[in-house]
Amino acid sequence: MDNSKSEKAGLKFLFIIAAKEVLNCDVKFCHSLDIGMRGQFISKRKITSNDINILDKKIRSYIKQEFPILKITVSSKDAINYYNRYNEFEKAESIENVINDTVTLNELLGQYNYFFSNIVENTKLVKDFRIINLGNNNFVLVDNYIGKDFINKKNILNEFNKYNEWINLQNIHFVSDLNKIISLGEIENFIKKNDIIIDEAIMKVAEEIFRLKKKVVFLGGPSSSGKTTTARKLGLYLNALGKKTIKISLDDYYKELDEILPDETGKKDFESLKAIDVNLFRKHLNDLLNGKEVILPKYVFQKYTKTFDSDPIKLTEDDIILVEGLHGLNGEVSKNLDKRYKYKVYVSPFTPLTIDRHNYVSTTEVRLMRRIVRDNRTRGVNAEKTLESWNLVRKGEEENIFPYTDEADVILNTAYIYEIGVLKVYVEPLLYTVKMDSPYYTMARRLLDSLKNFFPISSEYLASDNVLREFIGKSEFNEG
């Protein structure tokens, strides 16, 4: 069982029930954050800090009393009627869209709900938590709270809010609304509109870099964010403004295999900045800025070594260096570089779409599905291997990427509202290969259960410069 997911589901259930009892309101969970879940109280009155204190105490009383959380299998028809009776129409529609005769609900204190993960068997198994009041009936529910200070990353929250405003203008509030667009044969037009939003954001960043006369642009972000495609598109927009670009990948600066330190499990830690030859990168960057010729390395991952057989390059007055990699935002990478010259871009998908009011689309799981598809297509790696490596990838992100998001000058959101429908066609058969005796079977089934809510979308509608092409193939920016 994925304990973190099951505990989170239990906490959400307790939160929903307690909010109804002590605040007389429902709750919407909007999206995940690196430290918890952001949500909204669905209430006409303003929820105060005192209200949240009362809510906190109620949840803790539930946890202490060790109430059982049961699994109840009911007919889909009964579940649909139940949710329609309580005006949770989007949940009823979601069940209708999944062609099953029965549905498994969770029962706690006479309330019924469902979550796309296993759930703890009783309330006492829910770990400590913290409720952060963001004002205007918004909150962050920190699960498995271990005393970390909460940092309100307003730039990321603003990105979610901005995208959410746009999809609301498109009359998309839940996945069932997107499914209607697909079933009506209108998805091709929606894809074009969504692509415009993504491309316009990249163009605005290019215009800002041009206006500020920056010389080095660093693009950083977590795994499977679409950094490579975003860097290439940003380069094209800068070219259109009369600027030539030199693209450098930090992946080409990995150290030789015997120089890369192991992590606590004994495996080579490719997620750490210590695996990168930062000194060589800084030297090359400094040489280029000083007008010297440089031969950039190319890292051959099959042999875990760098080659230096490319032609030398030289920076001209109109050139801009684009540096792309996991550690692009880390200050150590650009240490000693004059702040006037550098500009930092955080690249990541932020998906404001929700399946229903209590189940959001996980940004982390979107990236995981992207990675499963790409790993299989480009390296022949099966889904189980990708799932096996995911915890280490996530650990590396939490240590080496997320702490530096506030250093970014701008955020580029690479999430497409429709993308899970596209990814479903590719990732679903790969997930079905994970056998029942695998330690990652539960993880695979959770993703499959979530995918059932999305209608499939053909990739024929995707342009060759779409970020998703980086994962599913046929991108104009690479040979895949």
Features of the shown structure:
alpha/beta; 480 residues; five-stranded parallel sheet; 14 helices; Threonyl-tRNA Synthetase, Chain A, domain 2; single chain; Rossmann fold; four-stranded antiparallel sheet; 41% helix
Quickly describe the structure.
By secondary structure, the chain is of the alpha/beta class. It has 14 helices and 16 strands. Strands 9-12-8-13-16 form a 5-stranded parallel sheet. It has a 4-stranded antiparallel sheet with strand order 1-2-7-6.
Report on this structure:
The protein is of the alpha/beta class and 480 residues long. The protein has helices at residues 3-22, 49-65, 76-85, 89-97, 154-169, 175-183, 187-212, 227-240, 278-289, 363-379, 383-400, 419-431, 441-451, 469-472, and strands at 26-33, 36-42, 70-75, 102-108, 111-113, 129-135, 138-143, 216-220, 244-249, 298-300, 305-307, 319-324, 342-348, 354-356, 359-360, 410-413. The protein has a five-stranded parallel beta sheet with strand order 9-12-8-13-16. Strands 1-2-7-6 form a four-stranded antiparallel beta sheet. Strands 3-4-5 form a three-stranded antiparallel beta sheet. A hairpin with a 2-residue loop joins strand 4 (102-108) and strand 5. Helix 10 crosses helix 12. The two termini are 35 Å apart.
**CATH secondary-structure class of the largest domain:** Alpha Beta
Please name the fourth-level CATH homologous superfamily of the largest domain.
Answer: P-loop containing nucleotide triphosphate hydrolases
Weakly predicted, low-confidence segments: none
Under the CATH scheme, which architecture of the largest domain would be assigned?
3-Layer(aba) Sandwich
Number of strands: 16
Q: Strands of the largest sheet, in order across it?
A: 9-12-8-13-16
Q: What would the average pLDDT be, to the nearest integer?
A: 92
> How far is the N terminus from the C terminus?
35 Å
User: What is the fold-level CATH name, i.e. the topology of the largest domain?
Assistant: Rossmann fold
3D shape: globular
